[in-house]
Amino acid sequence: MPLDTRVEALERLVRNPSPGIREQALRIGASVLPDSRLTEYLREPADAALRNAGSEILKLRGGRSLPLVIRLLQDPDPDVALQAVLILDRLRDPRALEPLHAVLGHPDPNVLQEAIVAVGHLGDARSIPHLLPFLSSDLWVQMAAVQALGDLRSPEAVPHLADRLTDPLVGSLAAEALARVGGEPAFHALAFCWPAGGVEIDDETMLGLLAHVLEGVPRPEEIGPLPRGFREALSARLHDRSAEARTAAARCLLALGASPWDGAAIEVLAGSRPAPSLRPAALARRQDLIPALLAAAGEPRAWGLQLAAGFPEQVPAAAFLAAVREAAERLESLPHLLQALQKVSVPGLGEALLDLYLELAAGSRDLLVPALGTQGDEVRSALDARTDIDDADRLVLEALLGKPMKEVAQAILDIDPSSRPGVISRLMRIEGLVTLLPWDDWLEEAPELYSALAAEAAVRCGLAEMLPGLRARAAVMPSVPLIRALGALGDREAVPVLAACLEAAEDLRGTVLESLGRIGGPEARAVLSSAVLSLGASAEARTAFRALAACAGPGDDVLFRAAAVHPDWQVRLVAADVLGRIRSPESSIALTRLAADPVPAVSHRALAALEI
Q1: Tag placement on the chain: N or C end, fewer CB within 10 Å?
Q2: Please, are residues 476 and 486 in contact by the beta-carbon 8 Å criterion?
Q3: Enclosing H/E stretch for 505
C-alpha cells in the first residue's frame, strides 16, 4: 500500500472510538510516519485528535523520538514546546536531563511548571541546584519545585524541603516530598513538627507519612533521639476516633522497636485489615514478637509465621509446634506455615507434621509434601511409632518419605483393591511409579475403577504405549478423561473412535472436538470441517471452529473466509486469526470485511493481520 494511502488510513483510524483500533493505528504510525509528519501533527492548531496522535506516537517510539523532541523544546510555539516536555516526561530518558535544565528558563509558565516536574521524574540529584531558585517563585512554580525535589529522592534535598514545612501554602506538599525522599533525616524533619504542629496538614496524613518513612528506614529501632514524648503521643493516638490515625500510630510504634504498647498496636493493626494479608512492614524487624504472634489467633499468627520464616534461628519450639498442630483448624494460616516450614527446624517437628498431615483434608495434604521430605527422618520415626494409621495413609506416607518405588508398587498390588485407586491418585506425581503398575491388566479387569487413572497416568508421563488400551476403552465406554488423553497424546489412530463419539455421545461433543483439534492431521481436519458445516450457528460451532483453527492447513481457509459473516463474533475472531496465518488474496478480502466488524476485538485482530 502506498505511503500516502497508509497515512490517510491512519489519520482516519486514530479518530476511531474503539481504543483497540486506535492503539493499533498509533503503533503502525510509530513505524511508518516520518518526523516531518509528526511535527505537523503537533503544530496542528485546529485538530486535537491529530495533535494527540502525534504526541502518543512519539511516546510509543521511545528513545528513537529523543532527537526530534529535544529540538521541539526550542519551538517558538509554547504549545509545541509544552508537548515536547510532556513527551520527555513520559519517556524518562536520562539523556533529556540537560535539555530539560535548559528549558527551566522558559517564559511560558505552563512549560516551566511541567519542565520542573519532568526534571524531578528523572531522579538525578544533580538537578537540585537548578530547582532551588524556584522555591521562592510564584505559588504554582513553588509547588512544582517541591514536588520535583521529593521525586528526586535525594537526602541532599531534605534541608531545603524541611525549611518549607511551616509554609502555610506548600508545607503539606513539603511533608509529602520528605516522605518520598525517606531516610532518617527526613523522619527527624517530620517528627520535629509532630505533635508540636506548625505544618498545615491533618494528623492522619502526618502520622501516615511518619509511618511510611519509618518502615523504609533499614533499622528504625536504632534511629536517633526522638522528640520528647514522641512515643507517648503515638500511644495516645491508638485510641483516636480515626481508624487511619490509629493504624498509622500503631505502625510507627511497632517500627520503632519494643515498647509497652506493642500488644495494643498489634491489636489495632489486626483490626484495621479486613482480610488476611502479608506481614505489615512495621513488623519487618520485630523478631522479638514471634512468640506472642504465634500464640495469637487470626492474622497476627500469620504475621508470626512470616517472621519465623525470616528469623528461623529465633523461633521458640513450643510456640511453633502449637501453631503447626492447630493449622488444620486455622486453614487461613496454612500458606504462611508452609513458608515457615521451609526454614524452621525445631525438635518434635516431625511428629507435629505427621499429626497435621493426617488431620488435613485430602485436597490440602499435598501442600505438606515438601515439609515432610525436609523433616523425613523425624516423620518416619513418628510414623513407625503409630499404630492407629490405616494402610492406605501409611503406604502413601512411606512412599512420600522415600520408600523404594519397586516396594511401593508391590505394596499397591497387595493393598485392598477398593483402596488402590485412591492411593495411586495421591502418588501419581512420584517419578518412576506409574510405569511399574499393570495398567493394561487393570483396564481389562476393572475398567470402571482404572480408566480415569490410566488416562491421567498416560498424559502425565507421556506413555504412548498405553494408547491402544485407552483407545479400546474409549470405543466401548467413552469418558472425558479418556478423550482428553487421546488428544493430549496426539493419537491419530483414535480419530475414527472420536468421530464415532461425535455422533453418538452428545454430552462429550465439546471434549471430542477439542481433542481432534489437538491431534490434527488430514483425518482430524476432515472430521472437524464436517462438524463445522453441520453445527451451523449452534453454541458448539464455536468449539468446532476453534478446534479446526488449532490445526488448520491449506484448504481450510475456505471455511474461515465464509466464517467472516458468521453470527457468532467469537467465530469471526477465530476466522481473523486463521486468515492472518493462511495468506492469499481471497483471505485479504475477508480480513478487510472483518476489519469493519462492529465488535472491536474482531476488527482489531483483523487490522493486525492486515498490517496496514
Answers
A1: N
A2: no
A3: none
Mean pLDDT for 245-251 is: 96
What SS3 string covers 475-514? HHCCCHHHHHHHHHCCCHHHHHHHHHHHHHCHHHHHHHHH
Cα 10 to Cα 456: distance, rounded to the nearest angstrom: 51
Give the residue among 122, 48, 131 at the shortest CA–CA distance from 83: 48
Handedness of CA 424, 427, 428, 431 (dihedral sign): negative
Distance CA 347, CA 460 (A): 37
Under a CB-based contact definition with an 8 Å cutoff, are residues 590 and 560 in contact? yes
> CA-to-CA distance for 321 and 310, rounded, in angstroms?
17
Give the mean pLDDT of 261-284: 87
Q: Name the residue type at position 394.
A: R
Q: Which of 532, 517, 443 is nearest to 479 (CA)?
A: 443
Measured N-to-C along each axis, helices 539-551 and 569-581 cross at an angle, to the nearest 10 degrees, of 10
Q: Provide the 3-class DSSP secondary structure of residue 228.
A: coil
Phi-psi region of 348 (alpha: psi -120 to 50; beta: other; left: phi over 0): left
Which are the contacts of 60, defined by CB distance < 8 A and separation ≥ 6?
26, 27, 30
What is the C-alpha separation between 527 and 483, in angstroms, rounded? 15
**C-alpha cell at position 242:** 480515626
What dihedral do alpha carbons 308, 313, 319, 320 form, nearest 10°?
60
Residue 277 neighbours by CB distance under 10 Å = 10
- Residue 256, classed as helix, strand or coil, is coil
Stated pTM of the model = 0.76
Any idea what DSSP says for residue 417?
T
CA distance 75 to 83: 10
- What secondary structure does DSSP assign to 328-353, as a single string? TT-GGGHHHHHHHHTT---TTHHHHH
Distances (CA, A) of 565 to 171, 569, 571, 590: 63, 9, 9, 9
* Per-residue pLDDT, 3: 62
- Euclidean distance between CA atoms 87 and 54, whole angstroms: 10
pLDDT in tens, 59-105: 999 999 999 999 999 999 999 999 999 999 999 999 999 999 999 99
Query: Cell numbers of 161, please?
Result: 524541603
CB 128 within 8 A of CB 153: no
- Say if residues 303 and 337 touch (Cβ distance below 8 Å): no
DSSP tally for the chain: helices H, then strands E: 40, 0
Give the model confidence (pLDDT) of 440-493 as tens digits. Answer: 999 999 999 999 999 999 999 999 999 999 999 999 999 999 999 999 999 999
